Prior knowledge:
By secondary structure, the protein is an alpha/beta fold. The chain is built from 17 helices and 23 strands.
Amino acid sequence: xxxxxxxxxxxxxxxxxxxxxxxxxxxxxxxxxxxxxxxxxxxxxxxxxxxxxxxxxxxxxxxxxxxxxxxxxxxxxxxxxxxxxxxxxxxxxxxxxxxxxxxxxxxxxxxxxxxxxxxxxxxxxxxxxxxxxxxxxxxxxxxxxxxxxxxxxxxxxxxxxxxxxxxxxxxxxxxxxxxxxxxxxxxxxxxxxxxxxxxxxxxxxxxxxxxxxxxxxxxxxxxxxxxxxxxxxxxxxxxxxxxxxxxxxxxxxxxxxxxxxxxxxxxxxxxxxxxxxxxxxxxxxxxxxxxxxxxxxxxxxxxxxxxxxxxxxxxxxxxxxxxxxxxxxxxxxxxxxxxxxxxxxxxxxxxxxxxxxxxxxxxxxxxxxxxxxxxxxxxxxxxxxxxxxxxxxxxxxxxxxxxxxxxxxxxxxxxxxxxxxxxxxxxxxxxxxxxxxxxxxxxxxxxxxxxxxxxxxxxxxxxxxxxxxxxxxxxxxxxxxxxxxxxxxxxxxxxxxxxxxxxxxxxxxxxxxxxxxxxxxxxxxxxxxxxxxxxxx
Length: 537
């Protein structure tokens, strides 16, 4: 079997000592040695390939511990409101008109990534504006947070929603002063509508291929998929991982954007549990949504919003309901988790975890909290006591941080508190939550190091961490969060050869130059799944 030997590199091992070495040897799909040049070159034989890295950095493949590959990929098949060409509602309507001309009658027209805070109009579009585009196509405009959308009358009719339809639990059909629907779907109302605007198997596979290719180009070798369209989506994830449409290793959370409680009940009753699968595709935790989005803002808080003293956000379930759903999952061997952004939601999930552990003691269940946005010190203490793994999203501070300060005041400095997690020795695993924000790990790492918003505001300076600490949270901690730290997440002999080569030394990078670093290649299982194209002058 051919050996690949890389020398003269800056090898971030991410081992227990955080050693930085010079060389690495790979045989087949495994790392066989890492160390000094002369030590690794002794392994050379007639079949070896020796590559001089010339001081470039190699790190373990990034593990994004919370993203939505199907949502991101299908968004790529839709109109992106994050495009430079869309700066106003008028721009968006023009793009929608173009799409209508290309789409058969009765098929969905979709746009995503809408953020009224960055649009010239500073508001969401209305149902009436969307009705002017088409009365023969359902239209859905998803807000950037993925928790709010606006739809046209055709879409409402298709979903059987009218002004007399009661609001779903944990959601709301927005109405104007006359009691008429505005077309804005909030939280669970959006989730239910979004599930109706579903995609075909062919669209999902195409979406997975597009997303996987883009993820590989940024060095992502493993993903923890945070669910989207339920059990059919789960099946397609497994199928496309097995057939290598999805290059990354997949740890799949079990739930859905709409009706997660029914899926969790079904899967717990099925007899399977977290960990089923192999190195390519594995069943992850049972997952619920407990509250809303940090940028909406709709997170559930213990104290009212700074921007609105009457607002405490949105919650989806009562404590009793969460206990009834997740304690049996814990009992049956599942890792359990939930989307919990506000401190009230984090409190609720921790209460369930504490009750589950007391009633049915288990060794090292590694329960998780997705996002854990407003994680105050008392909640961090409880996470540590229960061995809970938070999955923070530092890149949110870059894209949405100024809004956090407006809506949550001083609490914004405590959001996604990586510094506090380090001090408490809690193995937080960084994630992007793509498509909610940029999936490029360097964006998350840079914001973890600077805590700067787009406008340059530093939010929670004491929560800043170092480059090596951030990379650790994006690699070995992600592996730990999926019970896979023995096979990946660091560059050590015997581990899988999932690696990323950058075009420079990351240690020598100036802070802001870090964002300009590019991936030269991404390796999964000892095979290159991405290589940067040479620039011909």
